[in-house]
Amino acid sequence: MKKYSYIGVAFIILIFGIYAVPKIVNRFKNNDVIKNDNKVEKIIKHDSISKLVTINKVPSFEFTNQDSALISNSFYDGKVYVVEFFFTTCPTICPKMNENMVKIQNKYYGNLDFGIASFSINPTHDTPKILKEYAKLHGATLKNWNFLTGDQEKIYELANSGFTLYAGENSEAEGGFEHSGMFALIDKDGNIRSRLDDFGNPIAFYDGLDAKGVQMILEDIAILLKE
């Protein structure tokens, strides 16, 4: 009798498994879980590009662009824009950064709500005339792309304190200067914005040298343009 009882129990378990397991699997596939009160509750999945967090407010600035016009924060009011720090004689990372920035330009070309701000960290050399030639040489034709020059101390303060994107002189570095290769993303209200990483932490900035970083910022620009 015990043998038949075990067979019966095993049969019942098998039938239950055939009936119940696929349903449980489907509920997980649909992001559902069963609570103790037998009600279904959705699992909230982390999606790194569904929400862009605010990092900081861009401080006030006013510098001269490649057309010798004064450009301040107000130029970018109501616009989503990308910020970089560079210098025209940079022999290392700047050419790659601006090659990628042109890709970003081309993606949103013609969108009047999008812009770019490139701040020179060698303003003594990078005059408006030099910046205009550099822009033309590198295919920077976006109307809202400003190459900015001015007081070096103020530019460094903007980079290091305002954006926390490092910039500084270094006689031992190639070209005599050092700076971050990251891009900052700014929303229409002048806030530095960022997506979250896989652990829920803000990435803060986007790698301007890496294809993945460029793709990420392209996606997040699209999000901010819709806000």
What would you say about this model in short?
By secondary structure, this protein is an alpha+beta fold. The chain contains 5 helices and 13 strands.
Main traits of this protein?
35% helix; two-stranded antiparallel ribbon; 5 helices; 227 residues
Explain the layout of strands and helices.
Blueprint lengths: L1 H28 L2 E3 L5 E3 L10 E5 L4 E3 L5 E3 L7 E7 L7 H14 L6 E7 L7 H10 L7 E4 L3 H12 L3 E3 L7 E3 L2 E5 L4 E4 L11 E2 L3 H16 L1
Parallel strand pairs: 6-7, 7-8
Antiparallel strand pairs: 1-2, 3-12, 4-5, 6-11, 9-10, 11-12, 11-13
Task: Write structural notes for this entry.
By secondary structure, this protein is an alpha+beta fold. The chain is built from 5 helices and 13 strands. It has helices at residues 2-29, 94-107, 128-137, 152-163, 211-226, and strands spanning 32-34, 40-42, 53-57, 62-64, 70-72, 80-86, 114-120, 145-148, 167-169, 177-179, 182-186, 191-194, 206-207. The strands form 4 sheets. Strands 3, 6, 7, 8, 11, 12 and 13 form a 7-stranded mixed sheet that branches. Helix 2 (94-107) packs parallel to helix 5. It is globular and about 40 Å long. Mean pLDDT is 85; it is low at 8-16 and 18-50.
